[in-house]
Amino acid sequence: MIKTRKVVGNKTATISRQKTNTMKNKYSWFFMVLLLVAGGLTLTGCSQDNEEEENLEASRPNPNMLSDLSRPGAFISWTLWESHSSFGYTMKIEFDHKECTYTLQKSGSDDTIAKYTYNFNYPTVTLTSNNEDKEVITGTITSYYFKADDITFKNSKNETVWMQMTRKK
After folding, report:
1. Residue 128 and residue 111 in contact, taking contact as beta carbons nearer than 8 Å
2. In whole angstroms, what is the distance from residue 139 CA to residue 116 CA?
3. For position 152, what pLDDT does the model report?
């Protein structure tokens, strides 16, 4: 409802219209500022080069995403364990459903490969050589919540045979 009235000197003033326009200007200014602030917060929140967020990401724990071998009924089949040396060689042991393959890779030479049959009962893996010497090597698995499992190997004389290996898959 718009009311107008005449004021002295041929000037028409609209009292109600002035109040309405003043209120609209105040609210439109408020909404404009609110929109700019919300947009600014949204854009800074999505920034990829936010250093604080990178630091937070580094402090978050990364749980071990590999299957839990300590669980009853777990299998070691289809796992791969690796160790790298600063002297230029890599040791790998890969388990399939019946046997495991040990590979020693040295830079500039042929790979050394040995096959073993195995028996797994967490945390122990007993490897028996397929050669005529039937050497027995015992591996002990150490499981962690925040990193991949490790395995250490000892022979029948309780001497360390291979480097400690870390589970890759």
Report:
1. no
2. 12
3. 93
In a domain, 65, yes or no: no
Which pLDDT score is estimated for 64? 56
On whether residue 72 sits in a domain, the answer given is no
67 within a domain of the structure (yes/no): no
Asked if 167 and 80 touch (Cβ cutoff 8 Å), the reply is yes
87 shares a domain with 129: yes
What DSSP character marks residue 127? E
For tokens 């028409």, what's the residue? 12
For residues 96 and 159, state if they share a domain: yes
Q: For residues 166 and 51, give the distance between their C-alpha atoms in angstroms, rounded to a whole number.
A: 31
Instruction: Identify whether 63 is preceded by a cis peptide bond (ω within 30 of 0).
Output: no
Residues of the chain with pLDDT under 70: 1-26, 45-65
pLDDT of 146 reads 79
Number of domains observed in the structure of the chain: 2
> What are 114's strand-pairing partners?
102
Domain holding 86, by residue range, is 80-167
pTM comes to 0.59
| DSSP 3-state of 150 | strand
Q: Which residues contact 125 (CB under 8 A, 6 or more apart)?
A: 76, 118, 119, 138, 139, 140, 141, 151
Task: Check residue 72 and give its pLDDT.
Answer: 83
In this structure, the answer to whether residues 38 and 92 fall within a common structural domain is no
